[in-house]
Amino acid sequence: MTAPQPVRAGAAAAALAAIAIIATGCGAGDPDLPDPEPPAAPEAFTAANVDAWLDETLPTMLEDSGIAGAAVAVVGDGQVLTTRGFGLADTAAGTEVDPAETLFRPGSVSKVFTATAVMQLVEDGVLDLDTDVAAYLDFDIPREYEEDLTLRHLLSHTGGFEERIAGLIGVAGAEVDLREALATDPPRQVFRPGTTPSYSNYGNALAGYIVERASGLPFEAYVDREILDPLGMDSSSFAQPLPPDLADRMSNGYASAEGPAQPFEHVGTPPAGALSATADDMARFMLAQLGAGGVDLLQDATREQMFAPALDEGSLAEFAGAQRMTLGWFQEDQNGRRVVGHGGDTNWFHSHLHLYPDDGAGIFVSFNSSGTEGAETLGLRADLMAAFADRYFPGETATAAAAGEDAAAVAGTYFSSRGSQSTFLSALDAFNTTEVTALDDGRLYFASDPGTLEPGVFAPVGDGVWKEVGGDRTIAVRTEDGEVTGIVHDAAFTLLPLDAERKLGVPLLAASTAGLLLALLAWPAGAVYRKLRGRPGPGREGRRWRVLVRVGAACSVLAVAGWVAIVVMAMSLQDPSAALIRAVQALQLIGVLGLVPAAVRLVGQIRRRAGWRAVTGTVVVFLALAAVADFAFEFQLLSPDITY
To answer: Per the database record, which ranges form the Beta-lactamase-related domain (predicted)?
Structure first.
């Protein structure tokens, strides 16, 4: 799967720190970014040159980043230029990565295989890209909008579905039932189909199930018969678990090269990310996608249709000005050249594939470890793909700024459309935010560009479109009545404005939780102090209300801690039990009910003139309980529906 870019990359660490760390904006000064270097002359695109480059690049990359092993394939001029293995597939046994023998998990690169299967059936007249998918399904998908939901939407991540994390990846040995996985608790449709790019594992898996329904074969069997077997990809499979002859050749996955081997991962919706493959087999697939290699999976016109944007401005409006999703591929142009690609992540494997349709070239890389920094492979893959482009396909990336764009109107705090707006995971929207700052020269500055997790600057190029300074990536801004309603980036992701109330929720929650914790510590400390000083206690009057307030405060603090633990588990793809979630909800509810005794106690203190210190303390506790309760209601923490 491609886990989420804002969801998976560093998600566990972000959730742990969420209560303590509050995102802040950047200054408006011009950041100190290096000037882009002029393009060099291209190197000879030959097997010998590519091997030399890989030898110079990959070993150091692996060692510096704590990655056990990698597999690489490069194709060009209608042939395989090289396939290479680097590092270890099994660190304990010392088994080296063999590009012909060692299987890796490409994750969401699997989605391109699913899209290819769909397009084969479209080409055969069995499926239609623009027919409502209800015509192909044997179960109903809850709809929020009357517009058709089509295969074109599913393949371009514009079906409008929110994210679902539960069951995404596990280690259970039971076979996956694709229909059950899709029909049970489907994600809510939160955007109008075709209007808002929002990466969706569910949507792609639904397309895979339609392949199953239309062909009369299980999805894995169809891919075997129509894609893997014709290409001679006999070391690849969507099967989970793998057949014994392939399982023995599967690379281990690692958190880092120093850690223990992890279990084989079972993807809950196989079409979206269950492929296991060798580098040699991925080279065969790249050649077929380029129309080379002697096996035609698709006609030339169909392949070109797959490489073209799937939707236009009639559907996407202003978002069509940026790079778009094609029918299964991301537009990922490099150095002014047309590039389509796809990345993929499981818990332990991290991969990327780039095709140059006009240049007849392609590169695939897969790492079997996350590395010492967790999300480090995102940058490594980007660096490797950029270095490949600069070495063999250099070109200009100059950005000519256009006049008239209002950067100040775009500046603000945003959250990702790829989230769970209707579940308790919607709380992440308030923590995993992106700050966009208007620079003095009219450009936009991202302290953490959501596509790269690095600082980025975008210059206006006209019509609401902004281009990455020193790169080819573009973003597009959609406005309504003069207000920004979204920023599309990296083809399948949209940033949505975070409203003021939700933005204040984070600092208020942090301050309120801290206040309640201090109050809980202050109550016994005060009792000890009074005893040591020989001073009388508060007396029996209102004792019941004091106890109930303390119970409410304690439960609120425990609930916040419990939600942090649950979110960490969920984002680490470890399913928290329903019992745990319900228990934390019970604590949360008791905390909310704590407002009643807090209010009664406050009224009583005022009536009997208990003194400003006592009244102030109760007011602080009451407001803190109210703030935590408001956050719980705002972000569905008390929702009866605990699917996620």
So the answer is: 55-377
pLDDT single digits (tens) 269-304? 999 999 999 999 999 999 999 999 889 999 999 999
What's the start-to-end Cα distance of the chain, in Å? 17
CATH code, domain with 174: 3.40.710.10
3 state SS of 462: strand
DSSP 227: I
Collect all residues with Cβ–Cβ distance below 8 Å to 106 and sequence separation of at least 6: 275, 277, 282, 344, 349, 351, 353, 364, 366
pLDDT at residue 93, rounded to an integer? 97
Give the confidence band of 18 by pLDDT, cuts at 50, 70, 90: very low
User: Is pLDDT of 224 > 90?
Assistant: yes
* Sign, CA torsion 410/411/417/423: negative
Residue 222 resides in a domain: yes
Among 334, 369, 392, residue at a domain's last position:
392
Q: Do residues 465 and 387 share a domain?
A: no
* One-letter identity of residue 410: V
CB 224 within 8 A of CB 174: no
Angle at Cα 638 formed by Cα 635 and Cα 643, nearest 5°? 80
Are 119 and 175 contained in the same domain? yes
Residue 432: predicted pLDDT: 87
Over 90: is that where the pLDDT of 264 sits? Answer: yes
- Cβ atoms of 270 and 176 within 8 Å: the answer is yes
For residues 206 and 203, give the distance between their C-alpha atoms in angstroms, rounded to a whole number: 5
Task: Answer with the residue of higher pLDDT: 229 or 6.
Answer: 229
Q: Is the model's pLDDT at 379 over the cut of 60?
A: yes
- The answer to whether residue 417 scores a pLDDT higher than 60 is yes
Cβ–Cβ < 8 Å for 596, 544: no
In this structure, the answer to whether residues 434 and 550 fall within a common structural domain is no
569 and 630 in a common domain: yes
> Chain-wide mean pLDDT for the chain?
89
Q: Using CA atoms, how far apart are residues 289 and 112, in angstroms rounded to an integer?
A: 10
Determine, yes or no, domain membership for 639: no
- Given phi > 0 = left and psi -120 to 50 = alpha, else beta, which region is 107? left
Instruction: Count each helix (H run) and each strand (E run) in the chain, helices first.
Output: 21, 19
Spatial distance between the Cα atoms of 449 and 507, rounded to a whole number of angstroms: 23
For residue 467, tell me if it sits in a domain: yes
446 band by pLDDT with thresholds 50, 70 and 90: very high
332 and 463 co-located in one domain:
no
Instruction: Decide: helix, strand or coil at residue 334.
Output: strand
Of 453, 382, 368, 279, give the one whose Cα is nearest residue 66: 368
Element (H, E) at 112: helix 110-123
* Pair 628, 556: CB distance under 8 Å: yes
pTM of the entire predicted model: 0.89
400 inside domain: no
Q: Residue 108 belongs to what domain range?
A: 5-392
The structural domain count of the chain equals 3
